[in-house]
Each structure stands twice: as C-alpha cells, then as structure tokens.
C-alpha cells in the first residue's frame, strides 16, 4: 500500500484542562478533496490548525510526504491555509498580496510578478493585479486568497470555512469553482465546514467529526446512504430515527420491536440487543404501496414548500416522540392535520450503531 500524502496518527489535544481531540487518526491521499464536517466544538478547526502547524498536538504525530511535521512551523511545512476572513493586506495591491508568500521565500521580483499573474488567471482575476482588496467583492477576495495560497505550490491546501461569509447564491457558485480548481491543479484540499450540503457538493472524502472524534469517513455517497452511527445519520442530512429491541432472529430475518410496531428485516442479531433504524426523508412514503414496510399512522403537522419539493413533518400516532420527516413532490396532496399511513421500502432502511 502506498503511503498517504498526509498521515495523522493518534492525535489528541488539550487546551488547558479541556480535551478537544481524542486519539484521532486520518489518512489523506494526494489529489483528494477532503472535507472535515461537524458541529461547533467537534474539533474540526483544531485538527486543521494542527495540519497547518498553528497548533502542536498534545499527543500523536502528523506526517506529510512521509516526514514528521508535528512540530514544524507553518512557514516551513508544505501546506498553506485560506482563512474565513481571507486575511488580505489592505495596503498592498492584489498582485503583491498574491506574491507575498513567494517574497518570504526569497523569490526575485520578476518571477514573483509572473507567478502571481498566472495564479490570478487561474482563479479568473487576471485583470485585478493592480487593484486593492477594497475594490473587490467578497467572492473576488476569496479567489485572491486562493491564488495567494496556490502560488507557492503547496502539497496540501487547507481551507478554514472559506465560504462562510458569502451569501447563498455566491457560496454555491464558489463551491463549483473550488471543485473545478482542485481538479485543475491536483493539489490535495482539506476543507472545514459545518454545512452538510457544502460537504456533499465538494468532497470525495468526507470526515464527520463529533466531540473531538471521527464518527464516520468515506465517500460522501456512502456516508449519506449508509452512515456508520446515529450521529452521522442525523448530522449528514436529515433522518427519521426509530430505536428498537430485537425480539427474535431466525433464518436470516430479524424481528425488531419498536414504538411504531414490529419491523422485520434481513440480517442477524442477538435477541434482546438494541439498535436504531434510520430512513432518509426522500425514502419515506405517505401511504403503503405494494412491497413497502408499514411504519404506522401519523398526523401531519408542518408542510413547507421548498421549491423542488415539499418538506412534510408528521407525528406518529403510536408514539408522539417520533417525528416522521418526508420530502415529497410539490404536487403531493397532503395538508396539515391529515392522518396518513407511513411506510418505506425495506432496502431503504439504514441500520445504525448508537
């Protein structure tokens, strides 16, 4: 097996008495787009800071290109960081901002200018070389920050919530541009966000973090469709989660006793053991078509129009603590107060570890 570009081994970190990372190990391959995803306080920004050399971990090691970079300062490791506020120098021209890292490396003026122009062309700002940061829009300043980071040709580009300050339309536009840029330059990107849609739009390697640990990681399609844990299922997109106890297991079929009734599924499990099931909103059905698995009746509460679909929230009649979340076509005949049968197809039920 080839060595990864970045190899984080058993990293833990504490700020005073507060432990923010717990024995984290992570491999990042060359040319990948890795997204660290999680809520505030999950440890994702601390892990990014450790990768960038701004924080030295309390325990563990970070290897980049096979070299131990754990205590190597930011300027001497093959990484650059793009911060959320872009951190551009207001008194410098855009060209000088982009060339600043090259200047710190002792590159001569003519070469700096040439490479800065090339980097600005790469991000679509070839005509901004002599302008100042205040003359650019937020999206343009973000592109300048990217050009400044890429001009020094890092092995790994680190992005700390770079789209957080942008409006929704511009954020989606920049997601497309970031992915295209990463494919064009081939540099490994490591991107921190708390936005699940952003993670799925950008990542080919999604890392879900919670309470200083990695809950789940893999291709975003797998993390979404087959989440490893309950937390991953509820944070990486929405889900209806139902917990139950195994009442019996025979001939490869499990009978799970749940608050909405008994559910039979393929698999093996020990009678008396407990686990949870999840159903994504696009797989939850109102009605019981042939071949579906009934989940009881529910009373429809909120019906929210969201453009291409209607978001429907319904409360189980058997257990008011269970809220069914469905995503239906805009023309679906359902209204607040309706009593509906709820079901899903067996193949769309996700079995979770708690």
Automatic annotation (TrEMBL):
PROSITE patterns: ABC_TRANSPORTER_1 (PS00211), ABC_TRANSPORTER_2 (PS50893)
UniProt record, GO biological process: quaternary ammonium group transport
Presence of the UniProt keyword Transport in the record: yes
GO CC terms of this entry: ATP-binding cassette (ABC) transporter complex
Swiss-Prot/TrEMBL keywords: ATP-binding, Nucleotide-binding, Transport
Domain of life (superkingdom): Bacteria
Residue ranges constituting the ABC transporter domain according to the UniProt record: 6-236
Keyword Transport attached: yes
A GO molecular function held by the record: ATP hydrolysis activity
Protein family according to the UniProt entry: Belongs to the ABC transporter superfamily.
The protein, known as: ABC transporter ATP-binding protein
